[in-house]
Amino acid sequence: MDASARSNKPDVLGRLTRHEAAMAIIGLGYVGWPLALHFSRRFRVIGYDIDPRRIERLRGRASQPGDLDGEASGECDIVLTSSADDLSEAVFYIVAVPTPVDGEKRPDLAALDDATRRIARHLKPGDYVVYESTVYPGCTQERCIPMLERLSGLAAGVDFKVGYSPERINPGDEVHSLSDTVKIVSGCDAEALDTIARIYGEVVGAGLHRAPNMEVAETAKLLENIQRDVNIALMNECAALSSRMGMDFDEVLAAASTKWNFAPYRPGLVGGHCIGVDPYYLLAKAAELDVRLPLIRTSRQTNEAMGRSVADILLRELAARGKAPQQARILLMGFTYKENVPDIRNTKSMDLFARFVESGAQVDVTDPHADPEEAREAYGVKLVEAPHPPYDMAVVAVAHDEYRRLNETFFQNVLSEGGLLADLHSVCRHRVRSFDCWSL
């Protein structure tokens, strides 16, 4: 390409830097909101979400401290909207919508398709579209680009550019922030990759990894979480064996961890929207290609069954103490999918709750982070503000900081004589001597 042809190409980064055009973030959840805040320190940002209630909540936070590196987000150049018409001002779109699975554990791309359609209506020559939502390998090229082309009448790679940059946001993690984590970037061609990398480089200080194509970037995202799923499944199986043999698995892990190359994974309930979901996206692609992935499938089955398996073990522990499930009162502590976050999507505490209720037990659920209205709407579970003792068993299901600070007096106040403490993550069992303790 000669110099004159290059000079006619839109300078997207320059226009963003001069605030002559805007960047649009589609989806303002746990991925999109940090993206919007970080980029709005450098560019004019349109933060778009289809949920007007979320927009109102975020507007209320927009002048509050703590949303971005402890600084007030009110300093950002950002407009929050639920009107798709506002997207017409953008030249660089980032898609950060949820990509869950359906009831049959198949990829649910309804939100991704909806976001793509909305962008296509406003797509102009020279625009960029970057997907951050987790997808199966090939999805951006095979599904998203044809939809953008069909609905916009433009040609990808010629009229507009496309890229994929998998999100690496870890909710509740104050150490590995967006700016402090290496970002994978990819593009539909070399020009797209270069521009996308330069734009993300404006907010990511930890550096960029330029993947050779979008499929590699898509697969890398899945592999990151599948590796954790497989290793946690291994720990869950070994923990079950150790429990049957009367061994403390914490002691097994402590001994094994003395070897330099032992990976210190722990057993646990695997929920949420990443580890508990991403393997199904790779399995779906493998099935399409008639490729078997037995290790990944078996690991997912092991972890998926863990909640009810743990509940059954605990019910047997109660029965061994002479307490039939129909007579038992249980305090379930923690309903979010992981510690110190409000997110209850795909929470495995629900599996514990459902099995306990199914057995006839009376169950109270508490959580200092979960929204009671969301728990009721999503699962039909009523959260109690405070325990109503006495309980025959207290189950610390999520390792919230609030639970880590509990001492023996708390459990003496909530558990009946001879009660059982089930501390799934071993966050407080070593401070409690008055009761029998069980952990993974």
Explain what you see.
This protein is α/β, with parallel strands linked by helices and 440 residues long. The chain starts with a helix and ends with a strand. It is 39% helix and 15% strand. The protein is elongated. The model is unreliable at 1-7 and 63-72 (pLDDT under 50). The chain is built from 16 helices and 13 strands. It has helices at 3-7, 12-17, 32-39, 52-61, 110-120, 139-152, 190-200, 214-244, 249-256, 278-288, 294-304, 306-320, 349-359, 372-379, 401-404, 408-414, and strands at 22-26, 44-48, 78-81, 90-95, 128-131, 161-164, 183-187, 208-210, 329-333, 362-366, 391-396, 415-423, 436-438. The strands form 2 sheets. The chain has an 8-stranded mixed β-sheet, sandwiched between helices. A 5-stranded parallel β-sheet has the order 10-9-11-12-13.
Which labels suit this protein?
alpha/beta; 39% helix; elongated; disordered N terminus; eight-stranded mixed β-sheet; 440 residues; 16 helices; five-stranded parallel β-sheet; 13 strands; 15% strand
Layout of SSEs?
Elements (H helix, E strand, L loop, with lengths): L2 H5 L4 H6 L4 E5 L5 H8 L4 E5 L3 H10 L16 E4 L8 E6 L14 H11 L7 E4 L7 H14 L8 E4 L18 E5 L2 H11 L7 E3 L3 H31 L4 H8 L21 H11 L5 H11 L1 H15 L8 E5 L15 H11 L2 E5 L5 H8 L11 E6 L4 H4 L3 H7 E9 L12 E3 L2
Parallel strand pairs: 1-2, 1-4, 2-3, 4-5, 5-6, 7-8, 9-10, 9-11, 11-12, 12-13
Antiparallel strand pairs: 6-7
Helix pairs in contact: 5-6, 8-10, 8-11, 12-13
Please provide a brief summary of the model.
39% of the residues lie in helices and 15% in strands. By secondary structure, it is α/β, with parallel strands linked by helices.
